[in-house]
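Subject: Sanity check before I submit

Could someone independently write out the structure tokens for this chain? I want to compare against mine line by line before I put it in a report. The sequence has 150 residues.
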Amino acid sequence: MNKYPSDQETHAKYYGQICEKVKQDAFARFLGIKLLELGEGTATAELVVDDRMLNAHGTAHGAVIFSLADFVFAAACNSYGKTAVALSMNIGFLAPSFQGALLRATATEERRNNRTAWYRIRVESENELVATLDALAYRKNDYFVPIETE
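---
Independent answer below. Compare away.
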């Protein structure tokens, strides 16, 4: 019988490959998002708001804030090398950010089983909570790293 390694074993053994896969997100690169940390079910990234990211009111566009939150969600739920995709997300925008602001998003896994996982994401700027995102992921059967079975 083939035994797959645990999520924690997979994260540890394939950490470099998992990070490289997460960093291949072309849209995140386009926005200038930088991955700072990738743990087991966690991720932290940041971006600097530039003039192209402002809405008509001169504040950071909600789509930019959402994109940063979505990126750390994707990184966290794929941190075990198993392909995971979003099922649902609910964002709350709590404070504005402006041109030049450094936005930092952190995803934390709240609960995970074989098929689904739930995450909480905080987007902050200068210690102020800008947005929160609750996100549910679907965990597929396949891995995007070359898993060795016993």
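---
OP: Matches mine. For the report I'm noting this point. DSSP finds four helices and six strands in the chain.
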